[in-house]
Hints:
The chain is mainly α. The chain contains five helices and no strands. The radius of gyration is 15 Å and the shape is globular. It starts with 13 loop residues before the first helix and ends with a helix. Residues 1-5 have low confidence and may be disordered.
Amino acid sequence: MFIALEARIQITGRANYAAVSKAFGEDFTAHPERLAQSPLSELVSCWWWKTHGCNELADSGDFVALTRRINGGTNGLSDRIELHHRAKRVARWLVPKP
């Protein structure tokens, strides 16, 4: 079975548009629709993840805190936990050993 997932973090709010505009040197406040286009949507998602300390939360396994950081609440928490369990089951085939 193949499951397609939408993995981008959606940028919302004027303050976030201003921050990403400053980081990327483009005016996304005037053109927010550009943030929905590939490859910029993926790059901006990665920028947001990094600047908001999501790696540390993900590495600690604190999915409640990570979900709150991204969504402001716990919507989708059970899905994230299940996807993490699936990823751990197949990681040995996907991640090279040191």
